[in-house]
Amino acid sequence: MQAIPIAHPADQSAAISITSPGGYPTAVLCWLLSAGVYIAAKWVAPEMPPWGLCFWRLLLACAVLLPIVHRHHGAMIALLKSRPLEIVAVGAIGLTLCQGMIYNGLNDTDATTAGIIMAMSPIMTMVLARLVLGEPLGLWKSLGAVAALAGMLVIVAHGNFAALVQLRFNIGELWIVGSAFCWALYTVLLRRSKFGLELLPLVVLLLGAGAVAALPFHLWEIVNDERSALNGNGLLALAYLAGPGGALMYYLYNKSVEMLGASRASMLLYLQTLFVAILAYLLLGESLHDYDLLGAAFIVAGVVLATVIKPRAAPAKA
User: Fold this and answer.
1) HEC-encoded secondary structure of 71-122
2) Of 90, 157, 230, 264, whose CB neighbour count within 10 A is largest?
3) Residue 115: its pLDDT value, please?
4) Cα Rg for the chain, rounded, in angstroms?
5) Of 76, 81, 101, which is closest to residue 214 (Cα–Cα)?
6) pLDDT tens for residues 73-103?
7) Distance CA 247, CA 207 (A)
8) Which of 241, 237, 207 minimizes the C-alpha distance to 92?
């Protein structure tokens, strides 16, 4: 997640000449812990309000990681003083809105479907990078984006063409689509902003900014939501979201980027969708629907078209 989910700035690729083999187990564990965020959030959704989960996860993960990046505190404070609005805006989009939308969506859809829809975010990133940064898209990436979009529509409409024509959608899945869009926009804004800070301290700074942005939503819940009181299940879920699924997951992602480079580490994001489906089946009793499988097939085809197939190089002129 990202849930998520989860922050993996794509603008800071590591300059690595030799890939460390230990990077792959680190990345696999990172995305397994990330998948667990969907399971924990879905499990506690009836009892714990979404913005409360979002606020406390961001705040606690920031607090745990802050001492680890103590050598960068001076640079973090300087960046916060020089560009406070950008830091808050990027943190709010990529962490507050992205995670809050996932937690809201899980009230009305299952974790498996959420994981499949979030696999759309790299395709959305490519399209937004073309619109915002002017990065070339090309034929194969364009076809991949169209195929992935078709898959997302199949899932959101539950395979019902009539529902698609009449714009009858599940509100939970629309929340997840919004989350995937926020994650893609967040990634593009990070590339554009070029904050000039190492990955982990930047993530810690954005976690703090995201917590600040989430606080008004959480205060609104305290006033209006009868689920706002933390109970035993809520505390257990929050402990996972902030610890193994939060601070540890962010740290492992940073290590995997150091060992593999940002491109390889980010591509392993697709493992998250697989892990979500497996864990949801084992722990929540969920099963894949026909429309999930059909939509996932379109999304996988889109990813292959956009990331695997390379355009032929134009022949050099004599």
Assistant:
1) HHHHHHHHHHHHCHHHHHHHHHHHHHHHHHHHHHHCCCCCHHHHHHHHCCHH
2) 90
3) 87
4) 19
5) 101
6) 999 999 999 999 999 999 999 999 999 999 9
7) 10
8) 207
Residue with tokens 């699924």: 245
What distance in Å separates the CA atoms of residue 189 and residue 87, rounded to the nearest whole number?
10
Please write down the HEC assignment for all residues of 275-296: HHHHHHHHHHCCCCCHHHHHHH
Instruction: State pTM to two decimals.
Output: 0.81
**Pairwise CA distance, residues 89 & 92, whole Å:** 5
Residues with pLDDT less than 70, the chain: 1-21, 162-168, 226-230, 262-267, 306-318
Environment class of residue 16 by beta-carbon count within 10 Å: exposed (0-12), middle (13-18) or buried (19+)? middle
d(CA 84, CA 74): 15
* Helices vs. strands in the chain: H and E counts, helices first: 16, 0
CA distance 32 to 229: 29
Taking only the tens place, the pLDDT of each residue in 13-72 is 434 444 566 778 888 899 899 999 999 999 988 888 899 999 999 999 999 999 999 999
Which three-class secondary structure state does DSSP give residue 254?
helix
Query: Are 306 and 126 a contacting pair, CB within 8 Å?
Result: yes
Contact 132, 188 (CB under 8 A): yes
Distance between CA 146 and CA 250 in Å, rounded?
A: 31
- The gap from C-alpha 245 to its chain's centroid, in whole angstroms, comes to 12
Give dist(CA 160, CA 169) in Å, integer: 10
Asked if residue 152 lies in contact with residue 295, where contact means CB atoms within 8 angstroms, the answer is yes
